[in-house]
Automatic annotation (TrEMBL), chain A:
GO terms for biological process: protein N-linked glycosylation via asparagine. It comes from Trichoderma asperellum (strain ATCC 204424 / CBS 433.97 / NBRC 101777). The keyword Transmembrane applies. This is Dolichyl-diphosphooligosaccharide--protein glycosyltransferase subunit 1. Coiled coil: none annotated. Pfam families: Ribophorin_I. Keywords: Endoplasmic reticulum, Membrane, Signal, Transmembrane, Transmembrane helix. One of its GO terms (cellular component) is oligosaccharyltransferase complex.
UniProtKB/TrEMBL annotation, chain B:
Catalytic subunit of the oligosaccharyl transferase (OST) complex that catalyzes the initial transfer of a defined glycan (Glc(3)Man(9)GlcNAc(2) in eukaryotes) from the lipid carrier dolichol-pyrophosphate to an asparagine residue within an Asn-X-Ser/Thr consensus motif in nascent polypeptide chains, the first step in protein N-glycosylation. N-glycosylation occurs cotranslationally and the complex associates with the Sec61 complex at the channel-forming translocon complex that mediates protein translocation across the endoplasmic reticulum (ER). Keywords: Endoplasmic reticulum, Glycoprotein, Glycosyltransferase, Magnesium, Manganese, Membrane, Metal-binding, Transferase, Transmembrane, Transmembrane helix. This is Dolichyl-diphosphooligosaccharide--protein glycosyltransferase subunit STT3. The chain crosses the membrane at residues 20-40, 119-138, 144-163, 175-208, 214-234, 246-267, 273-291, 303-329, 365-384, 391-413. GO terms for cellular component: oligosaccharyltransferase complex. Residues 536-592 form the STT3/PglB/AglB core domain. The keyword Phosphoprotein does not apply. GO terms for biological process: post-translational protein modification; protein N-linked glycosylation via asparagine. It comes from the Eukaryota. Residues 722-742 are annotated as: Disordered. One of its GO terms (molecular function) is metal ion binding. It is an enzyme of class 2 (transferase). It comes from Trichoderma asperellum (strain ATCC 204424 / CBS 433.97 / NBRC 101777). Residues 22-422 form the Oligosaccharyl transferase STT3 N-terminal domain.
Amino acid sequence: MKSLSFVAALLGLLAGPCSALSVVCLPAEFKPPPVFKNTNLVHVVSVEKSFAREQINVLVENVSGEPQDEYFLPFTAEQIARLGGIEAKDRKDDKVGPFGVDLVEYSSQSDVQYYRITLPAPLKAGAQQTLAISWYYLKPYRPLPASIGQDEQQFLIYDFSLYAASAYPTLKQKTEVKLSTVTIPDYTKYTNSEGKEFPEKHGSKLLYGPFDEQPAGAVYPAQIRFEFTKPVIHVSELERDIEVSHWGGNVAFEERYTLYHRGANLSTLFNRVKWAQSQYYNPATSALKELKFPLQIGSVDPYFTDAIGNVSTSRFRSSKREAMLELKPRYPVFGGWKYPFTIGWNTNAANVLRNTASGGHVLKVPFIEGPKQVEGVEYGDVTVRVLLPEGSENVKFYTDLPNSSIVETSVGIHKTYLDTTGRTAIVIKAKNLVDDFRFRDLIISYDTPLAGTLQKPLVIFGSMLAVYAAAWAVGKVEVGFSSK
Amino acid sequence: MAVETPKGPALGYTTESTRALFRVVILCFIAAAAIASRLFSVIRFESIIHEFDPWFNFRATKYLVANGFHKFWDWFDDRTWHPLGRVTGGTLYPGLMVTSGAIYHALKTLTVPVDIRNICVLLAPACSGLTAFATYLLTNEMTTSPSAGLLAAIFMGIAPGYISRSVAGSYDNEAIAIFLLVFTFYLWIKALKLGSMLWGALCALFYGYMVASWGGYAFITCLLPVHALTLICMGRYSSRLYVSYTTWYALGTLASMQIPFVGFLPIKTSEHMPALGIFGFIQLIGFIQYVRSAISGRQFQTFLVTILVATFGLGLLGLVGLTSLGYIAPWSGRFYSLWDTGYAKIHIPIIASVSEHQPTAWPSYFFDLNFLVWLFPAGVYLCFQELRDEHVFVVVYALFGSYFSGVMVRLMLTLTPVVCVAAAMSASQILDTYLNWKSAVPPEEQEAPKKVKGGLRGSEKPNVGIYSNLTRVLVSGSILIYLLMFVSHCTWVTSNAYSSPSVVLASRMPDGSQHIIDDYREAYQWLRQNTKEDAKIMSWWDYGYQIGGMADRPTLVDNNTWNNTHIATVGKAMSSREEVSYEIMRQHEVDYVLVVFGGLLGYSGDDINKFLWMVRIAEGIWPDEVKERDFFTPQGEYRVDDGATDTMKNSLMYKMSYYNYASLFPPGQAADRVRQVRVPDQGPVINTVEEAYTSENWIIRIYKVKDLDNIGRDHVNAAAFERGQKKKKPTKKRGARVLRVD
């Protein structure tokens, strides 16, 4: 019964297609009005994975005389291109929301671009609110040294600003850098006005600050170089097809990955002897050896192929508790190498599809289901295509991905498997996702009228009859000369 | 078992339509059995294109599907035979690709989403079902026994001789060509029997399709005239023969000339001359027949002699003259090797180096045909008993087919249809005779039943018959056992010998589970993803098509082997010292060199074992620079261990195969498992190329050709410097002391 109420709640959300492009146009000479003050700010930079996550927890105060509901966050144009999954929420109270996050477009020439965060309720003059804004940077690192031996450690460099970028003056702030390692050979040092030297190093964490009051737009370029002897996985393109079949009671998934390793290149060419010998003691390596896909429980018939056919080095463990697909690429993927591949599997429709009381259907699938790797995976362009049964109508969909990640959505027609009118195809394009969004859902509700369901059997039956009738008619035709 | 069901005449109560229904159902089962028995490789491995040539056909099909027919027709492929390129559209038989392309588009119109690869993989099994049906039709023309056709169909469906070239994934020209061959023969017999222009035209149509599909069409081009000539010599000239032959030749030749690769060959090469000659001859006979009906006997004698002498003289003179003037090409080398099995080995090593061009070993007849081998002569004997026009065809076909199959292993394929037809005739003869329960009549009343009709001496033996049921049970029972053994043999052979994709190797893990060795694709995929789009790959020609198909990279030579010199160049690069090879590789802009090395795994089809062919082919062009003798020890052994000759050890191929190999083993234990020898602990030193990738089991080794040294050293010095060796001081040359004379 819980699921039913859940479905009902969702249907309330399915008001209509989510707004495709969350871009606000503003005049070219736009400057954010100085209506806020950051009373206290904590900037968390996390470089534990192959993408970087930044978060600012900020206590904002309305310093203007009127209620305000628009908070602007500045980024450079280059950052915007690599930025994804920006989200805002109230740090103190999860129930407050939703926050609107939109890219502000006012001048393509300007190096500073803004995201506009719309507060759910205008902040009264002099009032304070704690915002938690988080986002991800893709392709954030560069390896140094740029090329390493195949058994050497890999080091990455991350550039950031010690002062959190803000369009408002900040009274007090701290910056915290989280890493996955304690080996941090180089990092920017900072001495504040009192002569205290930062950062403090706590294991795999670096703490900077607190800093003094900084004006709006203050930056302090910083750099950190850390060990990351793990693959730096970048999926430049992911195409995900989900095909729903009511007749077969089956939902088929297929995902096509274009995977790159963005880490340090090999300084010498690949040496098989060294590689084979290193397999005995399995040291940390920057090469990608294995990908683990935790599929939804109940997934069956997985396959793993690439441009030239099946890849035999995969394993699928399926039980009541897990459905783990373990893939080994044909070759260890080193820095600068590329490995595109395709995987697919089926699942029983009952696992992901529900019927509503009104006779409609609701499909709930994860938006992305990529591999679960310790080092994390980032996705450049993601295209999810859902094929609903022929004749589906009244389609509504919803996803709880950050709004700003969705680039484009469309509903069209796709013909396959003896279709006559074609299936309803929903295409959602997103960009700059990371595998932290693996649990975000895509929910689609639709109706299939009886006529649509029966259309295909009838068409096939009719055409077979027509073929037989034609064959019979042709057989009746006398082609030869009569012997009489 | 489907074979046993047709007992047509014995079941007196069945009506004609029930029998027809039975026959259709049985034929469908036969087709299903034919298809199913070819799917071993798909079930065991995957839907994958096999071996070498199919990869090219597959690539060409993809090109056709992607770019359309006209572009395919004009396709100039600059990704093979670098830097020459290949006029692919004009040098291939397009029938196969066009067939799959048509199927692909038909399915696409029906909105059935099917991968072009799956069409290519399953085309051969699908065609084998059709072949079985065509064999049924052909056999039915030979005999009145209704079971013979069905037996022939199932024989054809599962005979290993045909399966060998038509398992799923073996996407080669033969896949559809055998169906076309059998069907063309059927149409020919039909046309000949009826003297029908319509059937003759259909025969020509399918002949044209056959020409578009396989170079083996020359077999039809020669067999039909030989059949016609035999008939004429037997005094069986008839207007039926005239009509069918003339129709077939005129239309068929026109059809064949539409294929760019064939073009004007039908009137320019000696292989096609028999057909043309018989065409003229049959006109002559037709004319003589007409004259004979018009003038008196005496005049006719004179007329006949004059005409015959004149025509033959003129024809022969013309042929010799045109050949010597170069208008008609003399027999090609490949054709000579059909008559003299030693010819290719001496003159065209490139043909001899292909294993399927070797003469057939005797056991392979039994291997490929099992008990059909001894039923076959019996069937041919039965043909002699009746010897109508169509039986003459079987006899002629049997004769030529047997000969050619003995010359080249792959021509076993063309023999198989006639073996199936003849064997089915004899098997059905036995079954029809011994399964006839009604025949036990007293000898006085009636002659033995089911005695052959109109045989040579049949009517002189009145008291032959089968009286005891024991005999019946014994004979038909033993035939049944043979049939069952045949089925199990075919299944075993197909499963064990013919179903390996050879791109993927299978081995067993200690626990008995299957382990797949996928080195080829591992390396090809690496090449495809991690090298430049236009990186030129040098390898021995065997792997050219696979590199083109799987790695999608330009190659220097491939299995098309149209340019012997280019292949010899690669052979020279492989068999020469590094410095010589490096020059060749620079000249050909080679980026990577790929060698196949089976030493670690015991994979015997590797490049070291093929190496002598490279040497021989290179020697054919550069006898002064490459000498086969230098690769043998003074004792005449071909060795790769410590005792290998210096030429061998310094050859690029040897170095690339064994480079760094010994370091995989503990000292003193490095062994080559193919040649069963211990290799030296100190592996070869390699200077001009560097190891770029080696697959997991070392089957494929890829080397990158080094660029010129930055500061102008030669590669030996540069590599020595890298290894940290001291530069050898040039020994001071002191000239002979001379007296100063100034």
